[in-house]
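User:
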Amino acid sequence: MGVVRQIDRGWIGRLERPPALDAETYAGFCEGMRGFIFGPLGGKVKQASDAAINRAKAAGRDLARVNDIRALFDPIPVVAARNRLLRSAQEMMWRRYREAYDDQAYLDELAAYDAKGPGSVEWDPNFAYPAYVKHPIHIQPGGYGGDPLCGYWYHQASNVFFIGANDQDEYHLSLAAATRPPADGKVDRVIDLGCSIGQLTVGLKERFKNAAVTGLDVASAQVRYAHMRAAKMGVECHFVQRLAEDTRYPDGHFDVVAAFLLFHEVSLEAGEKIVREAYRILRPGGVFNIFDFPTGLTGDDPYFRYFMDVDSKDNCEPYSVDYTGSDFVGLLKRVGFKVEMGTQDVMLARTYYATK
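Assistant: Predicted structure:
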């Protein structure tokens, strides 16, 4: 602690500016790195990778195992540069934002907003975290919710992930717009599972204005920040720290359940429990709206398998490979849902509409 806080630098759309200009400009550099990685450099990587795959197939090389694919791709200079730059940009982003919010004033601000409205927050300082959430997902220091101030720097860092294209929550608002209500149009209660800092939760409340909207997350730091941000925006949402697989709500309580990028961040065992819990808390005719990576698509695509493996190891995504290789639609159907597939968007999220 002890960094001098620069108070109230205003907002960029729906993103409150970081406490100091140098943190903001540093983030701009990290955004530029990501833009280069997924833009000009990404094109070169794809070209070099495709050429390597064609040569390997012509030579009759076996690419059945991911280690065989890594042996093919890892030595390619442009691929190695891409992997190193992406990891470095992630490390730099976390380090700078964590430093920027290292101030007691932010703990005091969260505490003050715990009791302020509109909306509410419920969290437990003695909450027992399950083992599967203790990994440093996205190589975030302390893990997803291990630092009481991580909501602040997670918000800033996630905007870097979107390469500056989500200042107005544009992406989350597009998901709220794509959220399907029940066929009878009755929407009194909505819940966002794995709500993180509540961007989709707020979007759902803005869409379903007369509904009681709840955001649920396993991390106290995330729901506290989510509540504070929603309250500052004047949006009445209710945030709770609970397990998505054990929400403690009554059977058939919700008309709409949503989950954004939740399932690839949890173990397959936890994911199945979450699906069953979503089915339990939905009323008949209710819709479970899932926005997550496509599944069952690893197949024979060496390019996809390679970069999923790199992301799993270099970016600490311990569950994503199992999830993307799973029969998620089959799971939804086994639990009892009727499933309709939606589109796949520019962020690679696929929409699954599961109706009870």
